[in-house]
Structure to design on (247 residues):
């Protein structure tokens, strides 16, 4: 026999998890760092191209969207690996949902506008809306829901990001007037093994992990992602979080 003494099954699993963690860490660093640099440069180029010819502006905007899509895919892959390999511990704290949703709206509305997708405004709460959640996980969930809405909406469709308070909970919803999903596709969206994640209306591709990761993150926080959709009637994705101090 080669090597040291035989490991127990628990030790073997622990060793494999440690090795997988190293591999995913290397992937994150080796691909994430160049992508972050490319995203920054593409953002500068997009700002400079605002006064350029429409064809050049569209080319730079397309490059910017593709880099953002790659970042999202890589992030989903790494997060999914973390959730599978590690005993992931959330770090809940009071999060003011109003400003958080407005920041996400400011990020995603220009990307929707680039595809000529409308954005319905919603009145932010007049007072702080503090929910108990892991802020990093919550931000990732919102990014995935909004990314999906932008990906599958057609020109002329509308996306609505809203916040509603009821019975000691805050309900966040991303709704769109896009093509919607039939029962079979809706039933498969949380299956990470499905082969076809579907192409977006601008031919965007993906790994199909976004909603899977979002659901896993919400479940860690005691919540649940609720999806409703019908062909031709759009899709609604919502989740609820407990308000701080609610009983």
């Amino acid at each position: 026999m080669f090597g040291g003494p035989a490991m127990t099954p628990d030790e073997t699993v622990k060793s494999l998890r440690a090795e997988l963690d190293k591999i995913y860490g290397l992937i994150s660093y080796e691909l994430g760092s160049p992508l972050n640099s490319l995203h920054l440069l593409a953002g500068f180029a997009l700002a400079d191209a605002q006064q350029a010819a429409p064809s050049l502006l569209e080319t730079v905007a397309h490059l910017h969207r593709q880099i953002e899509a790659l970042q999202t895919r890589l992030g989903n892959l790494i997060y999914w690996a973390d959730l599978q390999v590690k005993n992931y511990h959330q770090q809940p704290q009071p999060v003011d949902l109003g400003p958080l949703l407005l920041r996400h709206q400011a990020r995603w509305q220009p990307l929707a506008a680039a595809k000529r997708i409308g954005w319905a405004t919603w009145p932010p709460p007049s007072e702080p809306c503090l929910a108990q959640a892991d802020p990093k996980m919550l931000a990732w969930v919102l990014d995935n829901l909004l990314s999906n809405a932008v990906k599958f909406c057609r020109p002329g469709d509308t996306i609505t990001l809203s916040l509603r308070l009821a019975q000691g909970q805050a309900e966040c919803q991303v709704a769109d007037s896009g093509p919607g999903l039939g029962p079979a596709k809706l039933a498969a969206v949380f299956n990470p093994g499905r082969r076809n994640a579907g192409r977006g209306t601008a031919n965007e591709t993906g790994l199909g992990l976004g909603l899977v990761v979002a659901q896993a993150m919400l479940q860690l926080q005691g919540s649940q992602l609720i999806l409703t959709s019908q062909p031709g009637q759009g899709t609604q994705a919502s989740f609820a979080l407990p308000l701080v101090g609610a009983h």
Summary: The chain is about 50% helix and 15% strand. The radius of gyration is 20 Å. Helices lie at 9-48, 54-85, 97-114, 135-152, 183-188, 210-220.
